[in-house]
Amino acid sequence: MNKKTLQELRKIVGQDQVTTVPEELACYSYDGTGQEYLPAAVVFPGSTEEICRIMQLASATPFTVVPRGAGTGMTGGALPVAGGLVMVMSRLNRILEIDRDNQIAILQPGVITGDLRKAAGRHGLYYPPDPASLKFCTMGGNVAECAGGPSAVKYGVTRDYVLGLEAVLPDGRLIHTGVRTAKGVVGYDLTRLLVGSEGTLAIITQITVRLLPAPEARSILLVLCRGMVEATSLVAGILAHHTPCTLEYMDRTALAIVQNKLPFPLPEEVGALLLIELDGQKDSVALATSQLTKFLQAQPGIIQSRTAESADEAEQLWAARRAISPAAFSLKPHKMSEDVVVPRSHLPQLVSCTEALHRELGVVIFTFGHAGDGNIHVNIMLDRSIPQEVRQANTAKQLLFEEVLRLGGTLSGEHGIGLTKAAYLAMELDQSTITLMQEIKRLFDPLNILNPGKIFPPPIDSEKH
Ligand SMILES: Cc1cc2nc3c(=O)[nH]c(=O)nc-3n(C[C@H](O)[C@H](O)[C@H](O)COP(=O)(O)OP(=O)(O)OC[C@H]3O[C@@H](n4cnc5c(N)ncnc54)[C@H](O)[C@@H]3O)c2cc1C
User: Fold this and answer.
1) Could you tell me the CATH number of the domain that includes residue 340?
2) Is 246 in a helix, a strand, or coil?
């Protein structure tokens, strides 16, 4: 990026809101994948109008732009693989409106997800999507990835709450999609197209979400099981009779790496655990908890089921669950973090497949995640400086994906394709579908300046990684 372009950028956003200082660039060169690509410059816009002008400059020059929230993405979406400009949304962090009567919120993309949940709570309202990263990820990143979370089993994912968007196209034009009403079918559903578009079609500058009344009560049940197959075999049965708001699963390794965060020691023989939360009105939660406990006690393979004794204990359990992903690095320095989904009744086959991959290839692999959605995080741990480990991990990933598709599943439930799964897109989608998606990308972004190198093959050495 030459001097003149940087000067133009500074004219748009102000002298201090653009940086090319190497130490500062390094802070925006990585994401949750642990990979690094240095941008040429980083910009911190303060308004939609500034973003429009930056994109006009980007298409006239041209240079590439990568939108970035908090950089917690798990598939490399915020990595500037082609250098260029990283656009950080941290200054656009205001909740503009919470309309209690109509149960909606309007906010800027840099709002932290957990902050929206707290703000909604102060109005007696509830924003359900709860990625485990909610204390630091942004709503813009959630919309771009269609983030999910433990509560998706009852409440659905980000897509189910986004009513409308304001967004800037790669050429700088401003668009408005969707509505702020409960319903709306005017024209094509561009909101749905942009949700999950991974920052490749437009820059999201304002988000309208629907909210729900906050649930009155919660209870947490912990189900200690002998093994992975026993635990996952329970899932379909539980959901046949109950609607928990979370149904999370952790295998033995996941439990071991966060055991110092658990509120109590686990018996030796525990091979897997289910964390089930029920919410709703006080009486109905109490009734559902006792019915579910009875159901669980009659199931084989369970060592013990117990309810959390206090709000503190419940919070400690959730803190332990949220700590699994970062704690994984105590096993190996690098991680392939897959978020495959299978029909819930096939979960036992999925976890058996990961056990077989461990046995046959010797890879360090463990599983946890949103069992209620059939969405299991399969973590393949490796040291990328050891070629043999990289080869084994790549083989494990390929075999895992083959098994997931054979079981009728999908390669990503919530993390998106980004960089790390681009090479595998054609395993799931046929060529005509991929071509149509590429044509949509070209229509939005004919110069390929917005977040290039993501989603579509050919990948840029996707498993350097
Ligand atoms: C510990 C941990 C736990 C996690 N748990 C979950 C989980 O339970 N569920 C889940 O779904 N994910 C989870 N994630 C992944 C990640 O937090 C989500 O994908 C989240 O939505 C990313 O938000 P972000 O603000 O960090 O976005 P970034 O990583 O900065 O960006 C992600 C993508 O969004 C694009 N983007 C960002 N802002 C905009 C914008 N304004 N306009 C257009 N595009 C934009 C970027 O270009 C990029 O492609 C977890 C990550 C970590 C590290």
Assistant:
1) 3.30.70.2740
2) strand
